[in-house]
Amino acid sequence: xxxxxxxxxxxxQLSARIREGERGAAAEAxxxxxLHTGVTRLGQRLAAQEQRLGQLGxxxxxxxxxxxxxxxxxxxxAGAAVGSGVDGDPAVVLAxxxxxxxxxxxxxxxxxxxAQRPALLPTWSPTARAVAVYVGCAAVGxxxxxxxxxxxxxxxVDGVTLGALTCxxxxxxxxxxxxxxxxxxGRPALADTDPPRYAPLGFVIxxxxxxxxxxxxxxxxxxxx
Length: 225
Prior knowledge:
Radius of gyration: 37 Å
Number of helices: 6
Transmembrane segments: 131-150, 162-181, 201-221
Keywords: Membrane, Transmembrane, Transmembrane helix
Structural class: mainly alpha
C-alpha cells in the first residue's frame, strides 16, 4: 500500500469517527432537550397543583404558607439532575418525579372529592341527613320536656308554662337548632350555595314529635298510677 492509500484510509477512518461523534452528540442533545421538556411540564403540573391546593385551602379556611414560586424548585432541582447525572440516570430521576406528581394528582382528587362532602354524615343523602338531624334535635327537646314534666310534678314549673313550652317553645327551639346544624355542618367545604335544609319537613318533625312524646308520657303516667 502506497503512502497515498494509507493517507486516504486514515482520512476515511477519521471521517467515519467524526460522523459517529456527530450522531452521538445529536442524540445526546435530543435526549437532553426531551429531559428538559419533561422537567418543564412537571413544573407546570406542580404549579397547577399548588394553585388548586390554595383554592382548597381557601375554601376550608386554611391560610397557605409562603413558598417559593410554583414549580421553581422542582424545575431547578430536576434541571440540575438532568445536567449532571451525578445522582443517577437523569431519565430515571425524571420518571420518578413524574410518578410522584401522578401520586399527588391522585391524592388531590381524593381530597377534592372529600371536600365535596359535608362533615356531618358525609355518606348520607341530603334528605336522610336532614331527617336524622331534625329527629335528633326533637329527641333532645323530648328530654327537655321530661325534665320540665318532673319539675312540674314537684311544683317548680306551673302547668301553663309546661304546656306552652311543650306545644310551642321546645318544638320551635328543636327546629331552629336542626336548621342551624344543617347550615353549619351539612355544608360541603367547596359548596357554592347553601345546602338543602328541608325546613317544612323539619318543622313537621319537631312540631309532631315533642307534643306526641308529651302525650305518650302523660298516658304512661296515668296507666302506671
